[in-house]
Design a protein that fits this description.
It holds the Pfam family DUF2750. This is DUF2750 domain-containing protein. The protein is an alpha+beta fold. It is built from five helices and seven strands; from the N terminus they run H-H-E-E-E-E-H-E-H-E-E-H. It has helices at 7-14, 18-32, 61-67, 82-95, 115-128; strands spanning 34-40, 43-44, 47-48, 53-57, 76-81, 99-102, 111-113.
Length: 130
């Protein structure tokens, strides 16, 4: 379970570019053993890029909740355990031909990657920490 982030830490992390936020997400997800999505009454929130339908993911509850404004204000942040992510989500997203938007923040897009790429990064880092 992650420790709540203070305002200074949130501000610092939000200053990262998309690539650095991606690296931060991988590190946090492995450390906390959970990844965050937004859900509404229909399931997980989706974003659309020019080429892909994507599921946005965040490393911490605070960042997911910060995205839940405007048309997404009724959405709730939900943690998915890393084990469930590996066992169900990666394959499910691939089967549905969905990509991921890694750690979008207000005013900045996230990196668009494929589920197997994130899975590989998470497993590689986790194996380094064993």
């Amino acid at each position: 379970m992650s420790t709540p982030l203070d305002a200074t830490m949130i501000e610092t992390i939000q200053s990262f570019d998309a690539e650095k936020r991606y690296k931060h997400l991988v590190k946090e997800v492995v450390a906390n053993r959970e990844i965050w999505i937004l859900i509404d009454e229909h399931g997980c929130v989706m974003l659309n890029t020019d080429d892909e339908d994507c599921v946005p993911v965040w490393p911490n509850k605070e960042f997911a909740e910060a995205w839940a404004t405007g048309e997404w204000e009724t959405c709730k942040a939900e943690a998915i355990s890393l084990n469930k992510w590996h066992s169900r989500w990666t394959h499910g997203l691939e089967d549905d031909e969905l990509a991921l938007v890694v750690f979008p923040i207000p005013e900045q897009e996230g990196l668009v990657i494929y589920p197997d790429e994130l899975d590989y990064e998470l497993k590689t880092l986790a194996n380094k920490h064993r």
